Amino acid sequence: MLSTENRPPAPRRSTGRWRRYGRIAAANFVRGASYACGTAVIALMTWWVQTH
């Protein structure tokens, strides 16, 4: 039964899991923010071309 001794404790594994979820959430937030920013820039350019 050497495999059970080499296994890390549960709290360390749970914090790693939450850190991974946080990283995924941050990546999704950055992706959504960049998409919204790009959409706003395109809309602003379209509005500027139509008004000028």
What does this structure look like?
The structure is a single chain. This protein has helices spanning about 5, 10-50. It contains two helices and no strands. The protein has about 50 residues and is an all-alpha fold. The longest helix is centred in the middle third of the chain and has 42 residues, at about 10-50. Keywords: Membrane, Transmembrane, Transmembrane helix.
Topology:
Blueprint: H1 3-6, H2 10-51
Transmembrane segments: 21-49
Keywords: Membrane, Transmembrane, Transmembrane helix
**Strand fraction:** under 5%
Query: Cα-atom Rg, whole angstroms?
Result: 23 Å
Share in helix: over 70%
Low-confidence stretches: none
Identify the overall geometry: rod-shaped
In short:
With 52 residues, the protein is mainly alpha-helical. It has helices at residues 3-6, 10-51. The chain contains two helices and no strands.
What keyword list fits this structure?
about 50 residues, mainly alpha, rod-shaped, membrane, transmembrane helix, transmembrane
